[in-house]
C-alpha cells in the first residue's frame, strides 16, 4: 500500500528537519543557523512575506520555539515553527479563495 499525500508530506517534513539538523552539532536539533537555512531554502514564499527574511524575525521565531531555552530546536519545538507556517499558508489559502470569489462575482 502506498503512502497517502498527507503521509508523504509528514515524512518529507521529518526528513527535511533531520537533513538540516545533521549539518552541525547535535543531529536531533536545529541551531539558529540551521533553522534559518531550512526556512530560506524550503519555504521561500513564507520568508518573503512581512519582513521574515530579516535577522530579527528568524531570531524571534527561534527564541519563541526554543521552549527549554537551550539554544537548540528539537523536533517537538520545531512543531511550533510548523504551526506558524501552517497558519500563514491557511491564511493565504483563504485570501486566494476570497480573491477568486470576489473576481468571479465582480465584487471589486
TrEMBL record:
Entry's Gene Ontology molecular function annotations: calcium ion binding; calcium-dependent protein binding; chemoattractant activity; transition metal ion binding
Domain EF-hand: residue ranges: 58-88
Domain of life of the source: Eukaryota
InterPro entries in the cross-refs: EF-hand-dom_pair, EF_Hand_1_Ca_BS, EF_hand_dom, S-100_dom, S100_Ca-bd_sub
GO cellular component: cytoplasm; extracellular exosome
Sorted UniProt keywords: Calcium, Metal-binding
Keyword Cell cycle included in the entry's annotation: no
Pfam family name, one: S_100
GO biological process: endothelial cell migration
Name of this chain's protein: Protein S100-A15A
Organism this protein belongs to: Carlito syrichta
Gene name in the database record: LOC103266286
Amino acid at each position: 500500500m502506498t503512502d497517502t499525500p498527507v503521509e508523504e508530506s509528514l515524512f518529507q517534513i521529518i526528513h527535511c528537519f533531520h537533513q538540516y539538523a545533521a549539518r552541525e552539532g547535535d543531529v536531533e536539533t536545529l541551531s539558529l543557523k540551521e533553522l534559518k537555512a531550512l526556512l530560506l531554502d524550503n519555504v521561500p514564499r513564507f520568508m518573503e512575506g512581512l519582513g521574515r527574511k530579516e535577522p530579527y524575525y528568524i531570531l524571534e521565531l527561534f527564541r519563541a520555539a526554543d521552549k527549554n531555552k537551550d539554544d537548540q530546536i528539537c523536533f517537538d519545538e520545531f512543531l511550533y515553527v510548523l504551526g506558524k507556517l501552517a497558519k500563514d499558508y491557511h491564511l493565504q489559502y483563504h485570501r486566494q479563495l476570497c480573491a477568486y470569489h470576489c473576481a468571479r462575482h465582480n465584487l471589486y
